[in-house]
Amino acid sequence: MSGLDNLNRFWAFGSVGFLTLVSLAFLALTGWAWIAVVIFGALTVVGIYDVTQKSHAILRNYPVLGHMRFIFEGIRPEIRQYLIEGDQEEEPFSREDRTIVYQRAKNQEAARPFGTKHNVYGARYMWLTHSINPVDPKTRRYRVKVGGPDCTKPYDISLYNISAMSFGSLSGNAIRALNRGAKMAGFAHDTGEGSISVHHREEGGDLIWEIGSGYFGCRHEDGTFNPEMFAERAASDQVKMIEIKLSQGAKPGHGGVLPAAKITREIAEARGIPMGQDCVSPAAHSAFSTPLELCHFIGRLRELSGGKPVGFKLCIGHRREFMCIVKAMLETGIAPDFIVVDGKEGGTGAAPLEFANHIGMPLVEGLNFVHNTLRGAGLRHHIRIGAAGKLIHAFDIARAFSLGADWANSGRGFMFAIGCIQAQACHTNKCPTGVATQDPLRARALVVEDKAERVANFHRNTLNALSDIAGAAGLSDPTAFLPNHFLQRDSTGTMVPGNEVHPYLPIGFLVEGEEDEFGYLERWNRARSDSFTPVDLPDGDTKHLM
Questions:
Q1: Calpha distance 223→220 (Å, rounded)
Q2: What's the Cα-to-Cα distance from 542 to each of 486, 526, 531, rounded to whole Å?
Q3: What's the whole-model pTM score?
Q4: Which residue ranges make up each domain of the chain?
Q5: Which of 74, 86, 132, 310 has fewest C-beta within 10 Å?
């Protein structure tokens, strides 16, 4: 860490300490100096407390000065529109969203006075219908079994889990806090494509091992897939599921480079890469290039892992390409145990602006499409679906379940739980709370024991809230939401039931060739299992790829 960075972080603390000494020196000249001694001495004591306390990472990294943030938080109801939130339509999350996460993570009461803060009269407002005869969900079982017919080691996954976030993007302390919290509350932690690090292994929480195009943790020196290394790591009892990353919501279709200067020995060990060289994540996989090859790769990973659930994650792009994969499932008889649909609004790390804002399908549409395609192919009952993309509230999770999800993942929600304030400095290595940095002194601010407790609290309180709203809807099972449990107002002011906007299409309609009004069958007929290219694409024609 540079001396300039130290100066920026500790100048306030250093200044009050220096002024305390100066004031003490002036006591010999004037009795009035005792006022300055009291003021600056008190601030020095505050600074000492800040760097030694374990509850607030901001204060550990910015002693004395960090209290300004809490002052603004305390007066925010009066200055919200002008000083804190700005234009909520442009914010990735509003401060109200973050506040709810913080309250649940700290086991604080999340009730609010004076009704909703949302504009219930605005266009496209959505609400959950409740029952006049609500039920009390006495049995709160928040798990679902993942594992198809070919899986010999199925996993009972929690209904709410930590999305893929790699060590390297997050600090070692952040990974440890997340994983320890996952172990405490009994849910899963996705490793991200950065593979399994020592920080994951130290805490022992359940892992979903994500395998990206760089095959980190299971690669040869040339970057290709190494089956022996994969089998060795997948055999760990801590690894519960294997997830092939085809694309991610933040930057679908885009690779990445971790510069050599940012690679530490711990990162190199976790990823199986050399020091002193850029770490490249290609945009495409080298282990397969066709839908059929992808299915065979899934079968190979399942065998190498000893029968553990294997699936893939993607953000939907060309809808026909997903149908190509589904056709390959039918032809080979090899289906994934699960599919995670990542909405384009998801993503916790830095991404190119155009990718972050305009490339990829949002979760609602992508999830509904995957669910209906699997229903149409007659495969939905074999394959579980996970959903990811800004799912931090029980309402968001309930809606995802209504669209076909079996469980939900969250990245930002759990980042907020461990102290992220959304400073958007992740790519600078200067995260003020120690969450997204490899600077050991900045990461020190994040106290694992304290933040792990908050992770477990956030998970438990969010699922309890999900159970409560399920009961309010008359449901004893929090996964039993259907599209018709939701109503939304369209741009004309008309109330539209959710099942009219996102209906469930008939089981088997695609394989039976039944026409539909949404264009599924037309795309299905143009999809092929041996290639991602349409069957009817004329030579040189690139206008009909979707």
A1: 5
A2: 39, 14, 15
A3: 0.86
A4: 3-68, 143-500
A5: 132
